[in-house]
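Bench log, entry 3. Co-assembly request; chain sequences pasted below exactly as received.
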Amino acid sequence: MTQPRRLAEGGLIDRGEPLRFVFDGRELEGYAGDTLASALLANGISVVNRSIKLHRPRGIVGHGAEEPNALLQIDRGAVTLPDRRATQTELYDGLEARPAVGRPERDPGAAMGALSPFMPAGFYYKTFMSPQGWWERYEQVIRPAAGFGYAPNGPDPDVYDRCNVHCDLLVAGGGAAGLQAALTAARAGARVIVADEQARFGGYLLASRAWIGDESAQAWVARTVAELAAMPEVTLLPRTAVFGNYDHGFAGLVERLSDHRPPGKRAGPRERYWRVRARQMVLAAGAIERPIVFGNNDRPGVMTASAVTTYIRRYGVCPGQRAVVFTNNDSAYAAVEALQAVGVSVVVADAREECSAAAAAARDAGVDVRPGSAVLSAHGRRQVTAATIGDLARQGQQRVPCDLIAVSGGWNPAVHLHSHIRGPLRFDHDLATLLPASGPDYVRSAGAAAGVFTLAEVLANGAEAGAMAAAALGFEPVMASVPTVRDDDPAPGALRVLWRAPLPSEGKLPAFVDLQNDVKTSDLELAVREGYRSIEHVKRYSIMGFGTDQGRLGNIVGSGIVAELLGENVETVGTTTFRPAWTPVSYGALVGEELGALFQPVRTTPMHDWHVARGALFEDVGQWKRAWYYPRAGESLDDAVRRECLATQRGIGALDYSTLGKIDIQGPDAVTLLERVYTNNWRKLAVGRCRYGILLDENGTVLDDGVTARLGEHHYLMYTTTGGAAAVLAWLERWLQTEWPELDVYLTSVTDQWAIMSLAGPSSRDLVQDLGTDIDLDPQAFPFMAVREGHVAGVPARVQRASFSGELTFEISVPADYGLFLWERAFALGERYGITPYGTEAMHVLRAEMGFIIVGQDTDGAVSPLDLGMQGLISDRKDCLGKRSLSRPDFRRDDRPQLVGLTPDDPEVVVPEGAQLVHNPDQSTPVPLEGWVTSSYYGARIGHSFALAMVNGGRARHGERLTAWDLDAGAIAVTVTAPSFYQPPRE
Amino acid sequence: MQRYSALNIARHAASGHRHWEPAWRQAAPRRRYRVLIVGGGGHGLATAYYLAKEHGITDVAVLEKGWIGGGNTARNTTIVRSNYLWSASAALYEKSMKLWEGLSADINFNVMFSQRGVLNLGHTLQDMRDIRRRVNANRLNGIDGEVLDQAGVKARVPFINTSSDIRFPVLGASWQPRAGIARHDAVAWGFARAADSLGVDVVENCEVTGIRRENGAVVGVDTSRGPIDADRVGVVVAGHAGVLADMAGFRLPIESHPLQALVSEPIKPILDTVVMSNAIHVYVSQSDKGELVIGAGIDAYNGYGQRGSFQTIEHFLAALVELYPIFSRMRLLRHWGGIVDTCPDASPIIGKTPVGGLFFNCGWGTGGFKATPGSGWVFAHTLATGEPHPINAPFGLDRFETGALVDEHGAAAVAH
Amino acid sequence: MLLIPCPWCGPRDESEFSYGGEAHIARPREPDALSDAEWADYQFMRTNPCGWHREQWLHTHGCRRWFNVERNTATHAIHAAYRIGEAPPLREPAS
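Structure output for the full assembly:
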């Protein structure tokens, strides 16, 4: 295979390692060391994409993160990558790429260009408004035209790594300045991370013909990198973009680990996310060359001058055969030299009237340099065929045949990382661009990122930044002597500010400010004409800079043009905010492994495997997996729950209660704490007894509830809801630490330390006896709401007699490691009593029959204990958290929603939970809402369906008939009752 | 006002679009207005428009410290829905929804209100109870809504994760078909243009530095462009409500927090609706430009920096990839932050203040964009009459004293 | 991403902490003696400054201690962290 534009020699590519790849169905070849962009250029591919709006043919413009056009879709299926910049995609064997928009050849959307006059900036805002409600129909046509690629069609098969590191100095950018800074600081003893987004360090030095000391720039890079690599405290991260700079020295980096390898040779994580906390930073991300706008400046073959230099020198690819170089500064003369060196004839349109030294040198070398000139327009469609060069002062113009136009409008330092942390920027009139002004003291910009362009100065500047960072860290920097530098490539030097070329005599041609979004100068003119004068308005109205290149090429140019249109200076107009990310980063990398079971911890009880083996289905409650019900073959939820409920009433039901929150409270002031947080009284609770309590937030609404047992003189155990445990502990801790530090009391979460088996039903006492216990189970000795400590089944146990179901209940707590033993033992011995496991659903039914609430189901964050009919639980002899709120007028209203019971007319019909209660659902909306259903079941013990509900003023409405309405179940007639349905058996 | 239409675009195309007029005048502030509106975001501009249109009050200026629509209007994820739990909220947001539905035609500016529906996912049994309760309430309040099971969700978002390894399964969702998204900037510009055409002055680059009071009532404001007198002043400044309240000598039950959002690189249409999840905390839609627009909750701390912490973004994305594994290889293009003023009950404050003639409209938290037209409509009524409209009466500052909170956190309460 | 100087453990990443809002709001000793407005003021009204703010933080994934931080809400700069009960360290008005 031939690569028509590949040079016979030169470049940092390996001609001995050819790589095959496919672009748009064509099989092509490049070399190791190529980017996809350089390989495409080597193959003479001029059109790589179509523009998003007008479908104009587009070619490669840049050589890095600034590339606006070459957005390609890489690979297929679940591993496909949309929106990839060819300039940042390393070539590998077997790479498959296709254009993101349209077809390079014979594009079906090309007719869009003809509609251009009818699609000026903001035309969407002015049309598609009628008929009303039709916008979604227009969208059906508009949406498919947008977007640069396709999402993968399946879950990501790759894994991603993440690490947290601290360092003394983070250097963003491994070019001349960054390497010098790193070297200086590392030699002084600092722990340094150097990251560069490219596959190899060196930055622009990789395309330089400079000599540093007595070695080539590339040799200097290699030697410096080797020295850094040999230092144990230095971490070198190639293929790693510093994508964001955040507060207090935090920076995000993503390292590409495998995308550059052929698909068959990828192993391990695809990318690694480095979360770096740096004490000092040197930002040395270089600068981006900006274009000058002229007519048809989007034609394939129009490139930045530095891209041309880079392709020739670094990749051994010559992107054209006859070139016009259009510049307003000296740096483009590097491209002139590079082109000339490979035999390309060059005409230079230099906007400056005065011939600079670099221009004079080029002229002396035989180049046709035309001072005071500009490229006014490009010709050709799918490839530049000529440039119209005009004299800026004298209106004359000439058409110069060419297939390449290399443009330099000056340089924009990559101030993004400085700007992310709100580092201020200042406008530099010499460079006509924004430079970092003083920012946070731990951050320094160096090299081209700081507006320094001469290589010797860049090296000195980098060393200085590294030395200052080292000194700030307390190290004693050794300033290495800066080597002598010989660089025949000129720095930008004096610049003639030129944002756009004058119109050619053929009249107005489309002239693009933002290539990716097809934003033309005429769009900016229209925006300004229509009163969008703030640069933010212009940007948003024209969508300039909203592309994936984030306006790297066009934004400052756009500001310059807007300034001209407004008659203001660029400084006043300003530019828009630079936001992270510097370059796009994969979501997968930022997420790492925090998915599935690692998305949030899964908490299971010691008996979990037993439940699984028994066929239980589970319910997520907070982070816990709780057994929901245990269906037997062929049983529905309803069948299983009825069976579980009846087994509990008739024999023994066993519930895994281990998930309940448990807070151990000890200390002389323990009871004072309880008094302050619970609404009821605790001072008279005897040792060995327990009591139900509710916790309120300061707004007087129910926060949590549960039973607290007094285990000793100054020792209590508070039970909380399963989901509320962590929050209640944190909340109690907060009050203790911040408000009541004088209380001598200590809280310990013991939720995971105890497994609880709750045995409910008439035979539960017999079973506990059978298990063997040293606790006297006689009802006189061990009454309801008492707690005893001893042994059960030979293991230490705490037994509590509370009941959530109304049945005789023994809640046996054992150290967690004994949980499964006790559970299995109880099931072995309990068979004769018909012991049956029951899950949360049956538990809910049983408690609801008793009228016991579930916080979070029957309450919703707006419910007070008064609403629940719990006045009796509110002590009037003391204050507690939230109590004051209960006396506010709205909490005293009679018509607040209050807890009631409901019985449906049809005893077999279960009202859906979440049904609303109304008088007449058929009246016109809005229908006055009387309340809502919070819990609703078929009560197997009571033999009919029932519900708990909140009804406006409900306590005074017992006996009233209402309609429960649900969008799926329809209207169901119900009667309001007291919230209590089951008469528990007496002991 | 030059009328916007396809026909007029064609006409102007013939003359190279050289004759379009400014959408709104660059007004310089006069010395006195009947009504001043502080804050040129969507809400403030909507207020001005409805003051002029509904109440005939055109002696109005909107004072904006920077460029209009530059605060949260420019920074939000543009979700519009009205499926709120409590009737008071439902009435407010549904009023807004109805205005949205006719807005482009009303103000002759395409705000691209796309009624592509919103899914609010349920991941636990309690989520599903809450969803059913809310949708039932919505329906009885005249607001559209359905309850979907997992298959119903899958039908609308085929690539949503329903595999067994998802941490919290998708059990179902509420579905509001009339909900959707809109083009945020257009809302500010459209209202500005419409208000301007009715005689309202839209004054940019005019920062209010003080609120002048006499005998307990407002008499005007001090600004970076000089003092301006007014009979009534309405303050609609989102994240900075606390700062303006401080100028007027009172405090608010508000804390300002960063709220972050992000977009992906643009891709071809893949997501045709808006999907929100509380338990797996993230919401996502796809803009007409093709970007996935992603947001979630606020950063925990108070902040006026228009930026939050990156860990918050990491959490958004973990939730995103957990729910939509095919997005793992998509990339974060840009993230940013706004300042939202949050109320303890997650409901706004729209009404009177301790200062006579001074009215506040604030506390919209994370959800203000959807309310833009409705908020403006009721606030215009309040400024015109001096009394709240029945729709915003429940949202007075006095509710924090009486306890009559409109607790929209309620539906999301967890614990059992 | 804040770096928070826990007065007990030293500087740690924000992800280890929980935020608790404005500091130095003492719970009234006798809530029943307050008017509804005074109670509302305690419960809900906040200073919410754009600038220096004294606030509570909890080192959740560390020592589990609550402490106070003086932080600038506009710049996120942290002036000082100090323990509960300690007086806020002095700050130069200009800083």
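The mean pLDDT of chain A is 96. Chain A touches chain C through 24 residues (CB under 8 Å).
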